[in-house]
């Protein structure tokens, strides 16, 4: 059963660009295979086998991306209802109760999560604890370092 996946327009465009780059790589791989084939005996031709392996991996990735892109629904940020609870697409400002350190995260689907861009998914400990919560609420998150309490300061 194939499930619809939600993503931002930006992520959708990045995946399409990646797919096009992989499709363009096909010609280069085919050329490499042809050149390696010209070197003679294919049984002991490591360049040929490496190129064939690369071709197989590239085709597998193309197929995966095509399937993913066929089952995507692009989220338009203006269509995301502004709620008073944390949901997918929310930007949440939290403060660690013990240290006072503040963090701002956007809750995104798993494939868009990137901690360097302050994007976390509901599958992460913090993202999962935030989901469905309201501003002012104190949540407890069990992380490898132990139990941490965060207060939800703001939801956008």
Q: Care to give the gist of this entry?
A:
This protein has about 160 residues and is of the alpha/beta class.
Overview of this protein structure:
The protein is elongated. 38% of the residues lie in helices and 24% in strands. The chain folds into 2 domains: 71 residues, Helix Hairpins (Orthogonal Bundle); 76 residues, Chitinase A, domain 3 (Roll). The chain is of the alpha/beta class. The protein has a 5-stranded mixed beta sheet with strand order 5-4-3-7-6. Strands 1-2 form a two-stranded parallel ribbon.
The CATH superfamily label of the largest domain reads: Transcription elongation factor, GreA/GreB, C-terminal domain
Count of distinct strands: 7
Helix content: 25-40%
CATH architecture of the largest domain: Roll
Strand order of the largest sheet: 5-4-3-7-6
């Amino acid at each position: 059963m194939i499930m619809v996946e939600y993503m931002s327009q930006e992520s959708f465009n990045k995946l399409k660009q990646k797919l096009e780059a992989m499709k363009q790589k096909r010609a280069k791989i085919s050329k490499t295979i042809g050149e390696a084939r010209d070197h003679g005996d294919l049984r002991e031709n490591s360049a040929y086998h490496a190129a064939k392996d690369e071709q197989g991996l590239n085709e597998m990735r193309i197929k995966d991306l095509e399937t993913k892109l066929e089952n995507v629904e692009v989220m338009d940020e203006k269509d995301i209802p502004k709620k008073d609870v944390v949901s997918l697409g929310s930007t949440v400002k939290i403060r660690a109760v013990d240290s006072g350190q503040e963090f701002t995260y956007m809750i995104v689907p798993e494939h868009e999560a990137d901690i360097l861009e302050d994007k976390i998914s509901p599958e992460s400990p913090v993202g999962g604890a935030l989901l469905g919560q309201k501003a002012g609420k104190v949540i407890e998150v069990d992380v490898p370092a132990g139990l941490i309490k965060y207060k939800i300061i703001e939801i956008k």
